[in-house]
């Protein structure tokens, strides 16, 4: 149902911790484990309903707030966090923090130095080196891609055989151990829709559902960016929501697209979402028949597999490119990275999206206005700060507005245009040239306008009239024309002062200036009609 080819679904640490903490604050998992389990299934059901509803309501546009810079930082931060979590297996620690931030992880690691197991460190580093070498070989020789794809399974087999032959579990190497065979029973009858706990399950489901959805879409979009394709946020929401609804019926709690699982899936060379089906069938067969075979699988090997997949997803070159091209995008990237590493995955997403939204708001609230000049021997007008050969036209000031005109920027634009006029008047007065008689606004980049914008245009028209100047509009879009017409501003400006191009607008103004006295600008409408 989803559009992502690389998203591997499963449980995630963040959602698990949130469900545990929110439900655990009201119901003890040790005193009343059955109720706790039923509430977890119910919260998963509500999360799925909420997620699917967002997709059905076509709210997938929220994915657009995850920019390329945010994704680069999010991926690097998530990869760093996952790698840090694997230190538990590599160092052979029994107890480890449930927090994901780097401060808590480092505190947990260095407060237990006396429990580090050198055997586990050697084995973990050895398998990590093996996995990285196989990836390097596959990158250098694409025809040998199968070496990197087979490396994780090879590591599991070799690690299990090594532990079995050497009895390494008796020397500090932790193994998976006994796994119970079989599948969990259906849980449809376990869902609770009655007081007093339904509101707790509803609240938990909505909060964790939003976070899981944001993480899943972010991860899916991250890998889509790597493979150069697009994902549909609405489809992802519906797919993840449906998955959680059905999962709540089969003894599953909240699932999404975890970063570590998707990274291993991606690193193994999976090309389509069919890999999830194959993976689920393989897991089912394993749970039914093969769990005894994993008794001797060392946890340190699994940690090495995850770490090797994570290291390949920290894109240093992309971050350096962002620094060179756009410092604000680099701040978005670093904000996402630091938010994930020092806070949590959801905090990193919030920081990145917040910075991105603030940037958009700043661009809208303080749009760029530039003076255009004429390229000699043509009717082309370009920015004078970009084209040194561009020249001003005597008596005509050409300005371009590079953003929609909304309530947030209407006052700023009016003041900015007035300052441009004052600066031009001062410049021409100092040189003894003709003052500004016409103000041509290039509206080609103005995609929309609201009532505050039309009011600003009305005020600007009246202000220029008092100064003996005429406002001229060039290349306004159809939506702009409709709004100006319905607000009577178009009638106030005059249809004769609307032109399809800047060149035609300036040519008309120039004709009137050369045919009549400069002081007769207010009566130039008749002259314009004569020219036409």
UniProtKB/TrEMBL annotation:
Q: What is this protein called?
A: STAS domain-containing protein
- Listed InterPro entries: SLC26A/SulP_dom (IPR011547), SLC26A/SulP_fam (IPR001902), STAS_dom (IPR002645), STAS_dom_sf (IPR036513)
UniProt xrefs under SUPFAM superfamilies: SpoIIaa-like
Has the keyword Transmembrane been applied to this entry? Answer: yes
Q: Which GO terms describe its cellular component?
A: membrane
Q: Where is the STAS domain?
A: 386-509
Q: How does it sit in the membrane?
A: Multi-pass membrane protein
Q: Which compartment or compartments is the protein found in?
A: Membrane
Superkingdom per UniProt: Eukaryota
For this entry, list what GO says about its biological process.
transmembrane transport
State one Pfam family annotation: STAS
Q: Which UniProt keywords apply?
A: Membrane, Transmembrane, Transmembrane helix, Transport
The primary site where this protein sits is membrane
> Keyword Membrane on this protein?
yes
């Amino acid at each position: 149902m989803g559009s992502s080819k690389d998203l591997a679904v499963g449980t995630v640490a963040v959602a698990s911790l949130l469900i545990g903490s929110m439900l655990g604050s009201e119901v003890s998992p040790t005193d009343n484990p059955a109720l706790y389990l039923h509430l977890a299934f119910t919260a998963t059901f509500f999360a799925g309903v909420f997620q699917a509803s967002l997709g059905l309501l076509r709210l997938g546009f929220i994915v657009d707030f995850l920019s390329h810079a945010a994704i680069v930082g999010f991926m690097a931060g998530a990869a760093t966090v996952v790698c840090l979590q694997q230190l538990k297996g590599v160092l052979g620690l029994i107890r480890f923090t449930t927090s994901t931030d780097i401060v808590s992880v480092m505190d947990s690691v260095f407060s237990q130095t006396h429990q580090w197991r050198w055997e586990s460190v050697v084995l973990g580093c050895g398998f990590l080196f093996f996995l990285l070498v196989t990836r390097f070989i596959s990158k250098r020789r694409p025809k040998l891609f199968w070496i990197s794809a087979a490396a994780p399974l090879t590591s599991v087999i070799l690690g299990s055989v090594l532990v079995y032959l050497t009895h390494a579990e008796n020397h500090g190497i932790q193994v998976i151990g006994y796994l119970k065979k079989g599948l969990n029973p259906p849980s449809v009858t376990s869902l609770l829709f009655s007081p007093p706990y339904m509101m707790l399950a509803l609240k938990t489901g909505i909060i964790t559902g939003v976070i899981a959805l944001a993480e899943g879409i972010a991860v899916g979009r991250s890998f889509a960016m790597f493979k150069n394709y697009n994902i549909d946020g609405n489809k992802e929401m519906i797919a993840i929501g449906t998955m959680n609804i059905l999962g709540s019926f089969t003894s599953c709690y909240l699932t999404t697209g975890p970063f570590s699982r998707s990274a291993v899936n991606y690193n193994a060379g999976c090309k389509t979402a069919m890999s999830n089906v194959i993976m689920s069938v393989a897991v089912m067969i394993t749970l039914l028949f093969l769990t005894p075979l994993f008794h001797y699988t060392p946890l340190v090997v699994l940690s090495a597999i995850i770490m090797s997949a994570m290291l390949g997803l920290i894109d240093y070159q992309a971050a350096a490119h962002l620094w060179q091209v756009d410092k604000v995008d680099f701040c978005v990237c670093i904000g996402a990275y630091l938010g994930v590493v020092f806070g949590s995955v959801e905090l990193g997403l919030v920081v990145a999206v917040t910075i991105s939204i603030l940037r958009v708001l700043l661009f809208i609230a303080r749009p760029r206005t530039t003076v255009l000049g004429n390229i000699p021997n043509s009717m082309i007008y370009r920015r004078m700060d970009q084209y040194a050969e561009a020249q001003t036209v005597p008596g005509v000031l050409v300005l371009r507005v590079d953003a929609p005109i909304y309530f947030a920027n209407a006052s700023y634009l009016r003041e900015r245009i007035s300052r441009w006029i004052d600066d031009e008047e001062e410049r021409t007065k100092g040189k003894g040239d003709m003052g500004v008689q016409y103000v041509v606004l290039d509206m080609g980049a103005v995609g929309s306008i609201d009532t505050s914008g039309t009011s600003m245009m009305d005020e600007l028209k009246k202000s220029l009239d008092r100064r003996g100047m005429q406002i001229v509009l060039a290349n306004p879009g159809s939506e702009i024309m409709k709004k100006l017409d319905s607000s009577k501003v178009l009638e106030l400006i005059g249809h004769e002062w609307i032109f399809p191009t800047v060149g035609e607008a300036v040519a008309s103004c120039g004709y009137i200036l050369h045919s009549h006295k400069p002081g007769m600008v207010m009566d130039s409408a008749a002259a314009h009609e004569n020219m036409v």
